[in-house]
Every structure is written in structure tokens, then in C-alpha cells.
Amino acid sequence: MRFGINTFLFASPFTDASTHLFRRFKDWGFESVEIAIEELTHIDPAYVKGQLDRHGLVCGSATPCLGPDKDLRGTRQQQRAGIQFMKRVLDQMVVLNCPTLIGVVYSTVGRADAVPRGEYRRQWKTVTKNLKEVCAYAMDRGQVIALEPLNRFETDFINTCDQGLALIHDVGSPALKLHLDTFHMNIEEKDSAAAIRKAGRHLGHFHACGSDRGTPGKDQIDWKGIAAALQAIGYRGDVVIESFTSDVKVIARAASIWRRIEPTRSEIAIEGLRFLKRILPTTNA
What we know:
The protein is an alpha/beta fold. The chain has one domain (3-279): TIM Barrel (Alpha-Beta Barrel). The protein has helices spanning 21-28, 45-54, 76-96, 117-140, 161-171, 182-188, 192-199, 223-232, 249-254, 265-279, and strands at residues 3-6, 32-37, 58-64, 100-103, 144-147, 176-181, 203-207, 239-241. Helix 5 (161-171) links the parallel strand 5 (144-147) and strand 6. The longest helix has 24 residues, at 117-140. The N and C termini lie close together (8 Å).
């Protein structure tokens, strides 16, 4: 298991210039970086890889930012744009030596509509078909895609572990895994630890976030139960701190961050990592 940090906490968009953060991440004790890719032109992956190597870090995961023009359950044009964008991100990940594409790989974040059951089933079939194509592309390159259930306020499509597993079953690709996030689980799951156990071997990525998007450990999440569940399933993937603050205006609006959750962004990273290393000692062996 490696502990990682998502770039959204400090930069949006993440660009070549943002690699100045790597020294800080390394000094704090992180091993991997999760890079948010908003536009393909924002980074030169070869340059970023060189900076990662220079600071003794790896790009453990990348998240493609699917805006309203890129939606695997949208119009045909939006579907094709979303598919092609993720394929190009996967190409950049080859250069970055990044194994896992994570996050909301099925729709635009923030699309939450009350659609009839028949329309939902139609969207499900559309997303299934489109993900099969993206997963085949990833599999040819030795990569994994981990789809993330979001809370009801950010999507109406995949909210729970059960829904995520159902989509994985229907896509039927060995390249498709599940990405669970403690913030979203705190809202949508009856029992977060039970959801982790249910995910089992399908769990391909994990976000450790405070229940209020703040510092892990300074919240009401049952972290001991989560640690025990991760140990029970033998999870050995990355554990990444993801948060957003009001300092990064674009992503703060998208994630509905209207107030300063912690005194500083650094506190979320430093104190959160210290807590995770303490609460997850057996799984980090």
C-alpha cells in the first residue's frame, strides 16, 4: 500500500508548472501523486514523469475530468468526446507509468436528474457499451480503470458500492475495478466497512477523505472499522487523500466547498497522512 495525495487540493488546473509541489509532497511523506487531468494540453507527460522521478515519487493514479461536453451517457457527440478524451488520458498515463485511471468515468460530475426508470436503464446500457470500449483500450496497455460511486448531490447514476459492482458485472472487463471514497460512502452507504468487504477483490482504488471533506481523522468516520475492512480484503492499492478547499475556486464550486474546512490546505495533507499511517499500520506492512 502507498499513500498518495490528489493534486486538486493544491492546483486546478494541474500543469507542468504545478510540479513544483512535488518537493513538498515528498517532504511530507507521500509516495504517490494522483494527477487530475482537466485538459490534455495542460501537461507534457514526459516532463511530469521526469519531475516525479527527480523527487522519488510515482503517479499512482490519474483522474479524467469529464465536463458537460464529455459524458458517456450524454448525446452521441458527448459520448464520443468522453471516450476519446479518456483514451488520450490513458495514452498520457503510459508515459507517466501510471497504472490506474480513477474517478467518475461514466458521466459528467454534477449531473443529477430525476429520470424515469426506463430512461435510467437506457443510460445504463449506453454507459456499459461505452465503458467496454474504454476498458478494452486500457487493457491493451496494461492499465486498470476504477469507477467511483458519488453521493446523490453529485450524480444520480452510481451512488453505492452495489451499483458500482453491478456496472462492473455488466461491462465484464478484467480491467474495470471499483474506487471507493470515504466521503461519498459516509453519505450513501449504511455501513462503509461492510461496503469495502463487499467490494473485496474488485476494489482497485481508495480515497481517504474526512466526512466534511477535511482532514482524515478529524471527523466522524469509523476509521478503525475501515482499516479492519481493508485488512480483511487484503487491499494493497493506493490510499489517497482527496480534498478540495475554497482556495481553488473552480473545483471548490464543482464540489460545493463554500467555507474553509481547515485552517490550511497543508494541514489536510500533513495531519491526514500522519493519521492514516497510524490507523493503517497492518495494511501498510
